[in-house]
Amino acid sequence: MSIRGPRKGENYELSVDLNSEYREKRKDAIKRVIASMTVGKDVSGLFPDVLKNMQTDDLEQKKLVYLYLINYAKTQPELVILAVNTFVKDSDDPNPLVRALAIRTMGCLRAEKIIDYLCDPLQKALRDENPYVRKTAALCVAKLYDLKPELVIENGFLEQLHEMISDSNPMVVANTVAALTDIHSASTANQPSTSSDSSTAFHITTPILNKLLVALNECSEWGRVAILNALGRYQAQDDKESEHICERVVPQFQHINGSVVLAAVKVVMIHLRKVRREELEKQLIRKMAPPLVTLLSSPPEVQWVALRNINLLLQKRPEILSNEMRVFFCKYNDPLYVKVEKLDIMVRLAHERNVDALLSELKEYASEVDVDFVRKSVKAIGQTAVKIEEAAEKCVNVLLDLIATRVSYVVQEAIVVMKDIFRKYPSTYEGVIPTLCANLDELDEPEAKASLIWIIGEYANKIENADDLLTLFVDSFTEEAYPVQLQTLTAVVKLFLKKPDSSQGIVQRVLNTATKDCDSPDVRDRAYIYWRLLSMDPAAAKSVVLSHRPPISIPRTTVAPAVLEELIGEIGSLASVYHKPAETFIGKGRLGADAMQKRAVEEADESQLSTQKALQTVVAGQQSENLLDFGDEPSTDGGGLSGLAATQTMLSQPAAANLIAGTSSNPLDDLVSIFGNVSMQPMSATPTPAPSQAAFGFGQPPSAAPGGAFGGLMTPTVSGSSTSPPTQQQQKPEEDLLGLF
Amino acid sequence: MLSAFFIFNQKGEVLISRLYRTDFKRSIADVFRIQVVSNSDVRSPIITLGSTSFFHVRTNNLYVVAVTKTNANAALVFEFCYRFINISKSYFGKIDEEAIKNNFALVYELIDEICDFGYPQNSEIDTLKSYITTESVVSQGIPAEESSKITTQATGAISWRRPDVKYKKNEAFVDVIETVNLSMSAKGNILRADVDGHILMRAYLSGTPECKFGLNDKLVIDKSQGGGGGDAVELDDCRFHQCVRLNEFDATRTISFIPPDGEFELMKYRSTSNVKLPLRVIPTVTEVGSGQVNYDIIVKANFSNKLAATNVVLRIPTPLNTTSAECKVATGKAKYNPSENVMVWKIPRIQGGQEIVFSAVAALTTSVTTRQVWARPPIDVDFQVLMFTSSGLIVRFLKVFEKSSYQSVKWVRYLTKANGGYQIRF
């Protein structure tokens, strides 16, 4: 009663009521205290008063007092000591509910001083005859480890937990597994290198495996998830054992709880790697499909998690749902995030036989209200065209129908998509160019403009009024966005190389404007390069600017194979939802872009694009991390740099440079988009993203002669691409460029 | 797994906050309020800021939020949120701000019971109700043996049932409820038709009854295994309450179980083949010039004339620039609802085989400022048909075996309904 606030106000009233002689009044006051606590008011001053009400027969009141204690134990550790006696007494109560409650709460108190008193009751609780107490105690060990790992090791609690895996009660087994896994991951996070031989590691041995398989069929749904997780970590000795695990887990596909189904899918996918019998493998994959589809009738959030995982599974095993495309058709009232995910999966499942249904569906979506969804639908049409050659013409017709609607954003997106179709099937659909050009005045988005200009430049010799059209853009050159400027520049040069007689004037003008009046160094540099190229050696210019480009294709995977394999082992988790390795968004032991690149290089024969995608995701993760982290540690990196230094830091993370270059994450507008990518040959051996290409605008000429006019600029780059490590490569061209001017 | 659990109201005020781990501060709640509640354009149910991930589910005027800093199991977190919502509904009759505020002490008690250190624990409603009640319980009131029983049940192999249930009259009610989803193209082609079936059971049976459940003779449960004739009922997939022995089902296709006491969902299934569509809707919508749209809609009831569809509601969209709409109907009532741009046609009852007609004229303003074409959202139909299943599923038998071999009465009901998923484009 010594430290007490003024004798008025809410807290004072509460303290009077807490000390009331009437039981009901006291209980009511406790409730009010909890209510204030919930909304964030500080009621820590009432600690002694609340504590007095702890010794009670009323279980509800006891729980309320405990709740208060949990909340303020950390700030008032010396007062919590007063409660210890009651806890210790409760842990001997004949009522198992009270015993469990005492153990549960003591574990939550998180005050150093009380911890020492916890060990004895916990020791007893772990051996309690009542399974309810035992299962609570099992988790309490994990709580204790979180707070003071030494105590757990000193008291031999870990050994006890290992013994408890053999408990007769499945729920105790499940909680024990959860606790051991928790301890395992906590210890590995703190000391990643030494974890393997430490005593805290949870290695699943064959005897444990058998116990888990038995408990799996009997315990509660959440327990099943914990056990399935542990099964996923088990290293099978041989293919027989893998098959056995799969067969035992498959019945869980029929569980009503979606998380159990996904956890079972995960275990089967992991152990399937070792299954040799092809017929069994097929059977397992077949059994997996219906439960996955059923997840689509869950609430939208669960549906979404399922869809993201189905997307991953399809990247690994495209055959899983090959006949099920229709179930992914969007309902009009699906939430947007579900619709977008369904679109992606529909395109993945498209093949010649179902493409008609898909297209009529996509066309339908393109007339819906939500702009984002409409754009994605139009994009999906383009992806379908690029994916299925037989359907390309139908897709083009659908796109023409959509352009005819004259809805601005539909038209613009359709033009962007048409550009990709041209990149895949060059010179096939030239007939539609006039229709596209007719919409020139409608375009106000840079990407659409840039796409149309690219098309005009590419087919300049086939479009009669190409120079008139391009003149329009040259006139407004300085007002356009940089991507449009870059594109105009390239298109005009293409035009000049194709029709040198009629376009001398326009090329002169655009080079003049671009070098004199433009703010963007990218645009200026590109213009200088073109200018010199054209003036020194027009033949070389032709072979550079008009070189043959490989057609684009839709990658089967959006993540690198190594990452995909890792994510498949994480099905159901947050990582699988984001399609990113967990390290990229979890605080401890973050994985940098360098590490990702190392991983990517190990997989030397991968497709370049998927590697770059992986890098981008990582860097995007890191950037958002830096911007948004509100964690405890202050951000140290990047803050002091500015200007050129900052640019170089960014460039040393290659993918970051891509982000700056405005790279979109869509596989169609890949990486260098329409600007670079002209010639990939010199670089394609190493999975290096190409900011330098973006800057040059046309990559290295395949016939780059080191002694030519640009020799000084080109040589280091070309040699760099074959010998030096990727990071250096990124900086060299940059320095060279600077040296030039 | 979970690091914290919150309930927010619509304004972003914290109603319930329970931190399971200490890896962050209470102020994390403010972050959610700023990033999600006051953000009108939330496009994902999971948001990761820094290394903290927020999972949220909206229900009525509440946000149920789980927070984690680990690579948590996303499916589990959402299933857990929905489980919490179900438990609250069962305890308070509804879940909204008022219910949570009035029962916040109980809510805390519940979330501490169903989740310990972030790991979900027993969440069977029936069991929870045996030891967490709305009236305060004095621990002396429950003798120690009683709570021993409760705890054994809460952790036991049949955690969903008390052993000492007694009824004078042993009864079991089975409700087969099917929700039909239909998406029909403007040309009358079926784009997709499927049935989400739920079999709900209310078991009032004494002792520890062993039940066996049988469906149609010609039931093909794993479609891909082939077999089954043209008229067989094919289920693409089915899922069971945790009381059903999945191993046994996997091996012999028998559904056997010891039911929880009271109401529970025994089984969920999905069927996409031979779906019988109870209502056929044939819309003819013509735009006359730019000022008028004519509607002629025929609804046919495609089922036995002994049955009837009830509570039929058609929601027929009109263009956004509709000024007025005249509806003519012989059956039911039709009304234009300008705020939602739909004409709502309500028919209390349609007898099997009956055919009814709707016609309307919508007048549009001619001063169209936007060039946006009318998106023509689909016509949405809601209805209920008793004693009819779209999949054709029938319950053949429900056998109950118990030590005392008492007689039990079983009742079966069927209901097919559409609820926002029966859509016809035009």
TrEMBL record, chain A:
<feature type="region of interest" description="Disordered">
    <location>
        <begin position="683"/>
        <end position="741"/>
    </location>
</feature>
<dbReference type="InterPro" id="IPR026739">
    <property type="entry name" value="AP_beta"/>
</dbReference>
<dbReference type="GO" id="GO:0006886">
    <property type="term" value="P:intracellular protein transport"/>
</dbReference>
<dbReference type="Pfam" id="PF01602">
    <property type="entry name" value="Adaptin_N"/>
</dbReference>
<keyword id="KW-0472">Membrane</keyword>
<feature type="domain" description="Clathrin/coatomer adaptor adaptin-like N-terminal">
    <location>
        <begin position="9"/>
        <end position="537"/>
    </location>
</feature>
<dbReference type="InterPro" id="IPR016342">
    <property type="entry name" value="AP_complex_bsu_1_2_4"/>
</dbReference>
<dbReference type="GO" id="GO:0030276">
    <property type="term" value="F:clathrin binding"/>
</dbReference>
<dbReference type="InterPro" id="IPR011989">
    <property type="entry name" value="ARM-like"/>
</dbReference>
<keyword id="KW-0813">Transport</keyword>
<dbReference type="InterPro" id="IPR016024">
    <property type="entry name" value="ARM-type_fold"/>
</dbReference>
<feature type="compositionally biased region" description="Low complexity">
    <location>
        <begin position="683"/>
        <end position="707"/>
    </location>
</feature>
<comment type="similarity">
    <text>Belongs to the adaptor complexes large subunit family.</text>
</comment>
<feature type="compositionally biased region" description="Low complexity">
    <location>
        <begin position="715"/>
        <end position="731"/>
    </location>
</feature>
<protein>
    <recommendedName>
        <fullName>AP complex subunit beta</fullName>
    </recommendedName>
</protein>
<dbReference type="GO" id="GO:0030117">
    <property type="term" value="C:membrane coat"/>
</dbReference>
<comment type="function">
    <text>Adaptins are components of the adaptor complexes which link clathrin to receptors in coated vesicles. Clathrin-associated protein complexes are believed to interact with the cytoplasmic tails of membrane proteins, leading to their selection and concentration.</text>
</comment>
<dbReference type="GO" id="GO:0016192">
    <property type="term" value="P:vesicle-mediated transport"/>
</dbReference>
<dbReference type="InterPro" id="IPR002553">
    <property type="entry name" value="Clathrin/coatomer_adapt-like_N"/>
</dbReference>
<keyword id="KW-0653">Protein transport</keyword>
<dbReference type="GO" id="GO:0012505">
    <property type="term" value="C:endomembrane system"/>
</dbReference>
From TrEMBL, chain B:
<dbReference type="InterPro" id="IPR036168">
    <property type="entry name" value="AP2_Mu_C_sf"/>
</dbReference>
<dbReference type="GO" id="GO:0005886">
    <property type="term" value="C:plasma membrane"/>
</dbReference>
<dbReference type="GO" id="GO:0030131">
    <property type="term" value="C:clathrin adaptor complex"/>
</dbReference>
<dbReference type="GO" id="GO:0006886">
    <property type="term" value="P:intracellular protein transport"/>
</dbReference>
<keyword id="KW-0472">Membrane</keyword>
<dbReference type="GO" id="GO:0005905">
    <property type="term" value="C:clathrin-coated pit"/>
</dbReference>
<keyword id="KW-0653">Protein transport</keyword>
<protein>
    <submittedName>
        <fullName>Clathrin adaptor, mu subunit</fullName>
    </submittedName>
</protein>
<feature type="domain" description="MHD">
    <location>
        <begin position="169"/>
        <end position="425"/>
    </location>
</feature>
<dbReference type="InterPro" id="IPR043532">
    <property type="entry name" value="AP2_Mu_N"/>
</dbReference>
<keyword id="KW-0254">Endocytosis</keyword>
<comment type="similarity">
    <text>Belongs to the adaptor complexes medium subunit family.</text>
</comment>
<dbReference type="InterPro" id="IPR050431">
    <property type="entry name" value="Adaptor_comp_med_subunit"/>
</dbReference>
<dbReference type="InterPro" id="IPR018240">
    <property type="entry name" value="Clathrin_mu_CS"/>
</dbReference>
<keyword id="KW-0168">Coated pit</keyword>
<dbReference type="InterPro" id="IPR028565">
    <property type="entry name" value="MHD"/>
</dbReference>
<keyword id="KW-0813">Transport</keyword>
<keyword id="KW-1003">Cell membrane</keyword>
<dbReference type="InterPro" id="IPR011012">
    <property type="entry name" value="Longin-like_dom_sf"/>
</dbReference>
<dbReference type="InterPro" id="IPR022775">
    <property type="entry name" value="AP_mu_sigma_su"/>
</dbReference>
<dbReference type="InterPro" id="IPR043512">
    <property type="entry name" value="Mu2_C"/>
</dbReference>
<dbReference type="Pfam" id="PF01217">
    <property type="entry name" value="Clat_adaptor_s"/>
</dbReference>
